[in-house]
Write a structure and sequence with these properties.
Elements lengths: L1 H10 L1 H12 L2 H7 L5 H20 L3 H17 L5 H16 L10 H22 L17 H4 L1 H6 L20 H15 L8 E3 L2 E3 L6 H9 L2 H17 L5 H6 L1 H15 L13
Antiparallel strand pairs: 1-2
Helix pairs in contact: 1-2, 4-5, 4-14, 5-7, 6-7, 6-14
């Protein structure tokens, strides 16, 4: 539904049907959609959050900001890597402020627009916490016991015990605006990526097992697991944009940021974790 609505709004009814068909018959969606893993649910909710953010960005309104915030909260609850959107969306709004003509977003309304966007982010955090029953929400950062080297500190790696690198610093007093289990899940996932060389986390790539992954694993997986017909359509779309030349205005690219930037950011985040590489579903 999201693919249909977004493509229809951008390019018309035929594009909407085509986008919907590409989703429904994508081998990766068909393969992963039957599983109880959170990946396809995150993909669908993440796409919905980006679409609603895009709609609000084109026509800012309080109702649009509220709906976008609620759906973004559900997307955050579906899988932790969607947290990147909480940082990406404000950057897109800032880019819109910087490069859009004053006639589009009038100077006197910028405070209202910024307040609406802050409301979206606030509601996303509220929905995320509510989905965990507010269990352990807003605990002090110094009270956590982390197991990953990133959050526990290098001493933990030598001692082999939970720790907190923020204890004893001014950051320890900060209240973490997410549920305790949510942050613990991020910590555990980070530990998994750091445990390179462990038998259960060895990486497989083109017939070879290794103790670590590689940054280009997901790019290669996308290249061979997305149907060639889909890639052909991607190339035709790129060619069409290039041939548009001056007709493709800077504003058109700015309007498309909510469509292009989130998948690029999520792919970059996953590719940066090279402790091990498993499964294309991580970047759906």
């Amino acid at each position: 539904v999201v693919c249909y609505c977004w493509a229809r709004d951008l390019f018309g009814e035929p594009a909407g049907w085509m986008a919907m068909l590409l989703w429904c018959f994508c081998p990766n969606i068909l393969a992963q959609g039957q599983l109880m893993s959170p990946d396809v649910g995150m993909t669908a909710l993440g796409a919905a959050a980006c679409y609603l953010f895009w709609k609000w960005l084109r026509e800012p309104s309080w109702s649009g900001a509220v709906v976008a915030g609620i759906v973004l909260g559900f997307a955050q609850a579906a899988k932790t890597n969607v947290v990147v959107l909480l940082g990406l969306f404000p950057l897109i709004v800032a880019a819109r402020f910087a490069y859009t003509r004053s006639s589009d977003w009038a100077e006197q309304s910028r405070l209202r627009i910024a307040t609406q966007h802050l409301t979206t982010l606030f509601l996303a955090i509220v929905v995320l916490n509510a989905s965990f029953g507010f269990e352990g929400s807003f605990e002090r950062l110094g009270d956590f016991q982390f197991v990953s080297n990133t959050l526990a500190g290098p001493e933990r790696q030598r001692a082999g015990r939970p720790d907190n690198r923020f204890a004893g610093t001014w950051l320890a007093a900060l209240r973490v605006p997410v549920p305790k289990s949510y942050l613990a899940g991020i910590d555990l996932q980070k530990r998994d990526f750091e445990n390179s060389g462990a038998e259960s986390f060895r990486s497989y790539f083109r017939g070879t097992w290794s103790d670590r992954g590689s940054w280009y694993f997901y790019l290669y997986a996308l290249a061979i697991k997305i149907p060639l017909g889909t890639w052909l359509l991607v190339l035709l779309a790129i060619r069409s944009q290039i041939r548009g030349g001056k007709r493709t205005r800077a504003r058109d690219w700015l309007d498309a940021l909510p469509l292009y930037a989130p998948p690029v950011a999520l792919l970059a985040l996953a590719s940066s974790q090279t402790g091990f590489c498993h499964h294309l579903r991580y970047v759906l």
